[in-house]
């Protein structure tokens, strides 16, 4: 009888252990399928140089001295949202960091604050200290809220950056508050929150303080950087950020950098692009790396604006390839 009981107990233990093994294995496989980040990308902790709060980031170090890509997350996202740029960085043996910079823009510490800018600076310093970074080739890429953060960094950080690549960026929080409120989406509430507005009335001064469009342009820094602004022609209709944000910021830089009034986007063209989502004067067949039609473009010196056939999105291949092409051209023959 005792022997029989012992066998039963051992059998039960075996079944429990086997079930636990299969459960744990299933959970690991599920976690792996839900986390598409490559194994080369490790999560790191970066203490803030301002308030000592830890900022998380995905980080990849290159095997040899190479450029650094800083990829900035979208308005409502965190650093954990998967980013295709990491794969391009790994494939080309580049350094890569995806900082959290105070997370989604739903708290006063986020949304273009001074803490956001210092967090981005801290992430760059971390990558330089822990990777193999060519410090003359540091490139910031951001989409939507990440584009907002990228251009706010351009205007307010003292760091020298080789490239700012801003895709469908928000540049004017005052305008975007009204645009979002009319559309009935939650971004207007987010803007009220980050600006500490009271009684549902926007604090316009604080919204401007967090908007790239209202910053004083650091002329020398801006002339030394390559500044690329991309917008999808359908954004604002099939998307949340009208292309006026990109056009108005481009025009501001043209004027502030004294590139000449001939190089701004004229009001009649801006209106046609915004309200008809098309251009009467066609450019002919021009494509972004063979994928999307270019509806309209302007370029002067280091500054460019591209309106492409698309919506509220980044074309990751174009974002990376345009930087890679210039890097390879500059280093050709070295």
From TrEMBL:
Membrane is among the record's keywords: yes
Task: Enumerate the spans annotated as BD-FAE-like domain.
Answer: 85-253
Q: Which UniProt keywords apply?
A: Membrane, Transmembrane, Transmembrane helix
Specify whether Transmembrane is a keyword of the entry: yes
Q: Pfam families of this UniProt entry?
A: BD-FAE
Q: Which residues cross the membrane?
A: 7-24
Q: What is this protein called?
A: Prolyl oligopeptidase family protein
Biological source species = Alkalibacterium putridalgicola
């Amino acid at each position: 009888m005792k022997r029989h009981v012992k066998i039963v107990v051992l059998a039960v233990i075996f079944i429990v252990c086997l079930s636990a093994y299969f459960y744990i294995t299933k959970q690991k496989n599920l976690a792996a399928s839900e986390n598409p980040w490559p194994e080369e990308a490790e999560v790191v902790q970066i203490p803030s140089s301002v308030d000592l709060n830890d900022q998380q980031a995905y980080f990849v170090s290159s095997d040899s001295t190479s450029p650094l890509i800083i990829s900035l997350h979208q308005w409502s996202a965190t650093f954990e949202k998967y980013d295709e740029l990491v794969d391009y960085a790994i494939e080309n043996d580049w350094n890569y960091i995806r900082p959290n910079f105070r997370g989604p823009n739903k708290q006063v510490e986020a949304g273009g604050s001074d803490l956001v800018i210092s967090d981005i600076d801290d992430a760059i310093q971390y990558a330089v200290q822990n990777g193999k970074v060519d410090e003359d080739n540091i490139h910031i890429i951001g989409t939507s809220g990440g584009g907002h953060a990228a251009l706010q960094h351009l205007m307010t950080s003292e760091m020298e950056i080789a490239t700012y690549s801003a895709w469908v960026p928000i540049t004017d929080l005052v305008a975007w508050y009204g645009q979002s409120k009319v559309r009935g989406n939650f971004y207007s509430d987010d803007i009220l929150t980050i600006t500490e507005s009271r009684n549902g009335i926007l604090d316009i001064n604080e919204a401007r303080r967090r908007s790239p469009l209202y910053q004083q342009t650091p002329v020398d820094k801006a002339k030394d950087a390559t500044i690329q602004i991309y917008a999808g022609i359908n954004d604002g209709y099939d998307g949340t950020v009208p292309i006026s944000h990109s056009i108005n910021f481009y025009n501001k830089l043209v004027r502030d950098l004294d590139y000449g009034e001939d190089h701004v986007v004229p009001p009649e063209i801006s209106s046609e692009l915004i309200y008809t989502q098309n251009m009467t004067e066609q450019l002919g067949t021009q494509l972004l790396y063979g994928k999307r039609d270019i509806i309209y473009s302007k370029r002067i010196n280091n500054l460019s604006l591209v309106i492409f056939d698309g919506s509220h999105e980044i074309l990751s291949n174009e974002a990376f390839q345009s930087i890679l092409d210039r890097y390879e051209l500059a280093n050709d023959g070295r």
